[in-house]
Structures are given as structure tokens and as C-alpha cells.
């Protein structure tokens, strides 16, 4: 069989490049029986934040670290009883990773571990450093030897060369030198550490497990509250922007070395990234997405017979849209939940049918109807076009698309895998052109002010935006040092953690 016709094993679905991808999830626990198993459960709850690789590092009572990493899904990597038994200890941390390009190399899988004079140190982070290339170059010139191409390793080297004596002071020293968005979890012989960037772009929460009746509780740091729920931990609070948390045998300690500045939490966590059952910055995600749908219907109502979500991420917004518009909500598109991240893509002749591996039209609901399709975003537009074609082929009389985010016109540099700007449909076309290309009778996005209203704000204040919304506005709150530095382009391959 010629190579061009041979079945190909691929690691990401071809229609998945038309969605944003959150690049990581983190989980750490201090002093719990079965710490590794609890961490694996936490990572399983955070699987939506990264599906390419995962790793766990544990610390036993003798001060010895144990680690296991692999490529693939959490359930595949940590299903072996021997693997789990090898991860001994009552403290642990773990990481899910989404690789931005190509195949995930095992050397890039986190947590990263290093032996220092003060002992072992493991670190993992969610986000992206916008001066990683510059720091990498400076560190190499000082003699540092990098073992990976992830920007998370910059933390390791900055801590290694710091002249401060304590681990916490070394971490603060490192964080003062980095730019970007990050939520970080680290483990060393004396404590579990957590840190959030000064703008609070990426999420991090604190939870408490047990401790009833006067016993010692276990403490959890993780990206989302859904990971607390799966291990039975209670939510305590969000880690504040710019805050460093130190958890040791004496309890939880807070350090705020950076001062108070305007928060800029990632607005896309509410729209798409966070799991619907999580509570983000005090706000239930599911209810927020329904309010976004309500606002979208107020702004862009159209006569129709049925509101249909593009599953799964479009479902809550479509429910809100249907409630406000009075139009029936129906599951007119059915998602196949049994399509894995790795699958056989048969031949060139049928690869264009890839979207049908994930979605199929419910003809009985759609045929002869005026349909409103509700989705969370349009990135490249390729998947939207295929879904519209599928709905029309199922007999829809009209197809109107409503999007629960404003037009995505700029790339993200803060930890979200997005195409370069020239490949973003909304950056290259106006809404009428997008509607023609996608093949809908009408297309509308929620306005930026409408999105802010759905989040409980009166609108967007250009002087003091409440969120990071650079993907819609180009208002980048953190300097894009590497993007503006063209002196060493090959180092731009450093990938987010």
C-alpha cells in the first residue's frame, strides 16, 4: 500500500484545531494517605485542561521523591497498580499538559524535578511566560543546561542560581524576573508551594480535605474546584493574584510580595475553558454560561423554530438563549463521547468527514426547521462550516449561528493555544463575510459589553478592564517581550507549561 493511502495514527483530531485549547491543569496535596491516588483523581477531573500528557511526583516521609510521567490520558497513564504503588508518600503534585505543536516529548512532561543543595524540588505550572525566550538566552549564557523545551524549566534554573537562602525566597526571586501568566504548584522537602501571577490571569484554588474532629487536614492546591469535588475536599478560597501559598506541617501561610494591582482574570475561563461544574472566582461557571446565553438572545434575537447547541460547550449558553427567546431548546446535534484523542484516520478520501466522528445531526429535530445554532466561539471557522453543512444536509430550512463570545481577533500569549492572527477568521473577515463563508443565514456574536454584563459588570471599562480579554481587544496587559524580540527566533519554540 502506498504511504499516502496507509492508515495514519494521529494524536489530535483534525477538527480540534478549530477550538482553543487550555494548556495545563495542576494539582497538589500536602499530607494525605493515598496522596498519589488522590492526585490522579484530581488530574482526571482536570482532564479537559490537557489531554496529551500527565505526570505525578510524590514525596515520602523519608524525604525521597518518586515520579511517573507518560503521554496520553490520565486514566491510561495511572491505571497500573504497580505504578501507583511506586508513588509512595503523603505529599504529591501532578500536571496535565496540552502540547501546542506536534507530539508531546516525554522530556517536556511535567512536573519537572531537580536536585538542589537544599534538597529535591518539583514544579509544574499552567500558563505561559512571555519573556521565556529572553530568560532562556540569558540563563544559557550563564552556563545553565536546559533539558526540555518547556518554559516551566526557566523556573528551575532561576531558583537554582538565586543567591537567597530559603526555598520560598528563591521562588520569590524567580517570580520577580518572569513575565507572563502562571498558576504554579511546587513541592520540596519542607512544603507544598503555590503561586499565582500578579494579574491572576490563570486560576488556582485552595481546598481542605478532612480534619473534622480535631484531626490534621490535608490541603489541596489545584486549578479548578471540580478537582476538589472529586477527592471530597472542601473549597476554602481562591488564591489571590500575586499571592504565594506555603503549606507545611504547621498549616497554610500566605505571602504577598508583589503588591496589589488590577486583576485581569482570563475571561475565556467563563466562556469555555473551565468545567461547567466548577466555581471560578466565586462564580458558578454553568450559571454564568446560561447568563451569557440570555444576554446573547437579548442582543441578537431572530425568528426561528428551535435552539440547538453545538455540544458540549455550547449547551449552557443555548439553554439561556432559549429561555430568553422563548424558542424551544433541543439537542439537534448529538456528540459521540467515545471518540478518543488518538484514533485511526483512514484515507485521504474520507478525512474531510472527520467532524462526523464527533458530531451527528439529529434529523428528526432539524428537518424543515429554522435552526439557531449556539456555539462558544469561532476560531478558524472550519468546524463551524462543516457543522452548518451537516445541519443543512439534515433538512434545516434556515440556519442562524449565535456565538457566546465576541469575535476572536487576536492570539493569546498567556497560556492558551491559539492560531497565529492571520488564521483567525474574525481577524481577516467582517461578520457578513464570516456568515457567507460558514454558510449561515445570519451570524451574531455577543458584544464585549454584553459579555461583561453577563458577568455582573455594567460593561467594559477601557481604562480598568476587569478581565484579560486580549483575544477580543488586543489589549495585552502583560508585556509580550518574546513576541517583540526577533533577535533569536529559534528559541520561540519554547512551549507553555
Would you mind describing this structure in some detail?
- The chain is α+β, with helices and mostly antiparallel strands.
- It folds into two domains: 9-264, Aminohydrolase, N-terminal nucleophile (Ntn) domain (Glutamine Phosphoribosylpyrophosphate, subunit 1, domain 1, 4-Layer Sandwich); 283-463, Rossmann fold.
- Helix content is 27%, strand content 26%.
- It has 17 helices and 28 strands.
- The chain has a seven-stranded antiparallel beta sheet with strand order 5-4-6-3-12-11-13, covered by helices on one side. Strands 7-8-9-10-14-15 form a six-stranded antiparallel beta sheet, with helices on one face.
- A hairpin with a 2-residue loop joins strand 14 (244-248) and strand 15.
- The longest helix is centred in the middle third of the chain and has 16 residues, at 285-300.
- The protein starts with 7 loop residues before the first strand and ends in a 13-residue tail after the last helix.
- Mean pLDDT is 89; it is low at 1-16, 341-346 and 486-497.
Main traits of this protein?
6-stranded antiparallel sheet; Rossmann fold; globular; 2 domains; Glutamine Phosphoribosylpyrophosphate, subunit 1, domain 1; 7-stranded antiparallel sheet; disordered C terminus; alpha+beta; 497 residues; 26% strand; disordered N terminus; 17 helices
Amino acid at each position: 500500500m502506498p504511504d499516502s493511502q496507509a492508515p495514519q495514527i494521529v494524536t489530535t483530531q483534525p477538527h480540534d484545531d478549530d477550538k482553543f485549547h487550555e494548556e495545563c491543569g495542576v494539582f497538589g496535596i500536602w499530607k494525605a494517605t493515598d496522596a498519589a491516588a488522590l492526585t490522579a483523581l484530581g488530574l482526571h477531573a482536570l482532564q479537559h485542561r490537557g489531554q496529551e500528557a500527565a505526570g505525578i511526583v510524590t514525596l515520602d516521609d523519608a524525604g525521597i521523591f518518586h515520579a511517573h510521567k507518560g503521554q496520553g490520558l490520565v486514566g491510561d497513564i495511572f491505571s497500573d497498580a504497580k505504578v501507583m504503588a511506586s508513588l509512595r508518600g503523603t505529599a504529591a503534585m501532578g500536571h496535565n499538559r496540552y502540547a501546542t505543536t506536534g507530539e508531546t516529548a516525554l522530556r517536556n512532561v511535567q512536573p519537572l524535578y531537580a536536585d538542589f543543595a537544599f534538597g529535591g524540588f518539583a514544579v509544574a505550572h499552567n500558563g505561559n511566560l512571555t519573556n521565556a525566550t529572553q530568560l532562556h538566552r540569558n540563563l544559557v549564557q550563564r552556563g545553565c543546561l536546559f533539558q526540555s523545551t518547556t518554559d516551566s524549566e526557566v523556573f528551575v534554573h532561576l531558583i537554582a542560581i538565586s543567591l537567597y537562602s530559603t526555598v520560598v525566597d528563591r521562588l520569590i526571586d524567580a517570580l520577580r524576573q518572569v513575565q507572563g501568566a502562571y498558576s504554579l504548584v511546587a513541592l520540596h522537602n519542607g512544603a507544598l508551594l503555590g503561586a499565582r501571577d500578579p494579574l491572576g490571569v490563570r486560576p488556582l484554588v485552595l481546598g481542605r480535605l478532612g480534619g473534622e474532629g480535631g484531626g490534621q487536614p490535608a490541603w489541596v492546591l489545584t486549578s479548578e474546584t471540580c478537582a476538589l469535588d472529586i477527592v471530597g475536599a472542601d473549597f476554602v478560597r481562591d488564591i489571590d493574584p500575586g499571592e504565594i501559598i506555603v503549606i507545611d506541617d504547621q498549616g497554610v501561610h500566605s505571602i504577598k510580595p508583589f503588591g496589589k494591582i488590577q486583576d485581569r482574570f482570563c475571561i475565556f475561563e467563563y466562556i469555555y475553558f473551565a468545567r461547567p461544574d466548577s466555581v471560578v472566582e466565586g462564580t458558578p461557571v454553568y450559571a454564568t454560561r446560561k447568563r451569557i446565553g440570555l444576554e446573547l438572545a437579548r442582543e441578537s434575537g431572530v425568528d426561528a423554530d428551535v435552539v440547538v447547541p453545538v455540544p458540549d460547550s455550547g449547551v449552557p449558553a443555548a439553554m439561556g438563549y432559549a429561555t430568553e427567546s422563548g424558542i424551544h431548546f433541543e439537542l439537534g446535534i448529538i456528540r459521540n463521547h467515545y471518540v478518543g484523542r488518538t484514533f485511526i484516520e483512514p484515507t485521504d478520501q474520507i478525512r474531510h468527514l472527520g467532524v462526523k466522528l464527533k458530531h451527528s445531526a439529529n434529523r428528526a429535530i432539524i428537518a424543515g426547521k429554522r435552526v439557531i445554532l449556539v456555539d462558544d466561539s469561532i476560531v478558524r471557522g472550519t468546524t463551524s462550516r462543516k457543522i452548518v453543512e451537516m445541519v443543512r444536509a439534515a433538512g434545516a430550512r434556515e440556519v442562524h449561528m449565535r456565538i457566546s463570545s465576541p469575535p476572536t481577533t487576536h492570539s493569546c500569549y498567556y497560556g492558551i493555544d491559539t492560531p497565529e492572527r492571520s488564521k483567525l477568521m474574525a481577524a481577516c473577515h467582517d461578520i457578513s463575510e464570516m456568515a457567507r463563508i460558514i454558510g449561515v443565514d445570519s451570524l451574531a456574536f455577543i458584544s464585549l459589553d454584553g459579555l461583561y454584563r453577563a458577568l455582573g459588570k455594567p460593561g467594559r471599562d477601557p481604562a480598568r478592564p476587569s478581565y484579560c480579554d486580549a483575544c477580543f481587544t488586543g489589549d495585552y496587559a502583560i508585556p509580550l517581550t518574546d513576541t517583540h524580540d526577533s533577535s533569536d527566533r529559534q528559541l520561540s519554540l519554547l512551549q507553555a507549561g
